[in-house]
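The instructor's notes for this session suggest beginning with a concrete chain rather than abstract definitions. Hand out the sequence below and ask the class to guess, before any prediction is shown, which regions might be ordered.
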Amino acid sequence: MIESIQPASVHVPRGPYSPGLKVGNLLFLAGAGPFDAEGKRVGVTFADQVRATLDNLELVANEAGTSLKNAVRIGAFLSTLNYFDEFNSVIAEYMTEPYPARTTVPVDLRGRDIEIDAVVYIPETEPWHGVFAILCTPFHEDGSLDLVSLAREVQFCVDGGVHGIVTTVNASEVWTLSARERLSVVETAAKGLGGALPLVVGVSGGSLAISAEFAKHAEQSGADAVIAMPPPSTTSGGIDIRGYYAGLADSMGLPVMVQNHDAPLGTRMTPQFVSQLVKEIPSVSWIKEEIVPPGPAIDAELSLCGDELHGILSGMAGRYMMEDYERGARGTMPACEAADVHARVWNLLEEGKSAAARDLFDRLLPLLNYEAVYSGTYKTVLHWRGVLETSYMRNLSGNPLDGGSQKELRAILDRMSDLFVGYPIS
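After discussion, reveal the predicted structure:
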């Protein structure tokens, strides 16, 4: 089957050809230049022209379900080879290893400096499923960022059999991190994973501009998707929210996951509005649903979104994962202190062993209920399991669990300690 690809945001060619042609698992991208959606030339400097050209190619690739990082061949036409080194520097921002095969030749481009065509592979992937564990950002006792513990936490999640990793979101204490620290956390997580599991990066921020910068960095670091709540200043159902997600989707080539979360941490959106985002913005293809109660919202979104929706992941630490699974959620997204147990529950559900899954879940639930009320539980458990050097919470200048709370938490953990995959409680 041959399919022509013509995104609305890419200008329509003047000649009888398509911006992209999808043939099986390959996408053939026609030569593109530095033009906006109306066909007007943009970019003053050579670097600006290259980025505008690559952005146009990325839009076509995204429409076809892939990205330039999957390019297998690039054809580059420069007005002069004097630009060769600068071209290499700019295009490196859009490519990841293994780099595509490439031809670079000088040609007369009638006043502009660049044209690029490409062949891009379209991966065959099953929709994600299972437990996407959230990394808790570790700190030393002086409050400084602890990237060594973070790398160990990534390995802990992989060893525990989780199905994906999430970072820089609410459970990561992301609001306490500087912009530079957020970038370092993402880079450390991506390096530790090495592509072994999907990486979803939180890019929520106070404005579209801030979120877009985090999203671009996530893509460059090797993330597989971004997740975001609307900026705090927006109102549910307003055009600002739609504009935010549309702008976020346009800023890079990764899938976007809408996080629907109640106030005060989030902005509660109706399932109807969330479904409109999925149907109207091509890259918005995932939902993390955690408004109270989540079940009816999951039902409504699955009914309304159609094929544009790749899946829904539930939140709330997985406390309702049994029900969420039965309603059709493709996974859950808890903090990672017991994600090895979460993963075993989910695997049993997918194997059709619902009674065994229920028995295991019933042993996990007391911990999930406790952490919902007692801040500091995530990190205390991770510290006791030897994953984090400390249980320090930066916004509280320590950990709020006093002696009585720690005694109760240990009693809960004693009843489930045989369920942990390595990393025993100390």
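Then share the key points. Residues 2-121 form a domain with the 60s Ribosomal Protein L30; Chain: A; fold (CATH 3.30.1330.40). The mean pLDDT is 94.
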